[in-house]
Write a structure and sequence with these properties.
This protein is α+β, with helices and mostly antiparallel strands and 106 residues long. 31% of the residues lie in helices and 22% in strands.
Length: 106
Amino acid sequence: MGDRYQKAELSNGRFLLPSIELSLGLWQGSYSNIDRLWLRWMTLEGDLIPTLEEKEAAAKQRAYRLAAKLRELGIGPDELSYSAFQLSRPLNSLLGVRSQESGVRS
């Protein structure tokens, strides 16, 4: 406590912080083109909290998959001129995605 060292108890190699529903753990991987062992934020269950770069890469992959699905259905993704709200329901149903009722009507 205070200015004294206290040995921390680890759970599966992670330091749990239940008050903020997170944990800190070691992760081997590449970040900013540096491959090494990193200290990473994780969920209490041990799933990585994605970095901004990881979130952007996942969004780009989803966009590529969506464009491929649209092309498969004979729709040119670059030719669409609807807003995201107008497209959300039809695209979600085409992709088999269930979403909560948002109150927005298309």
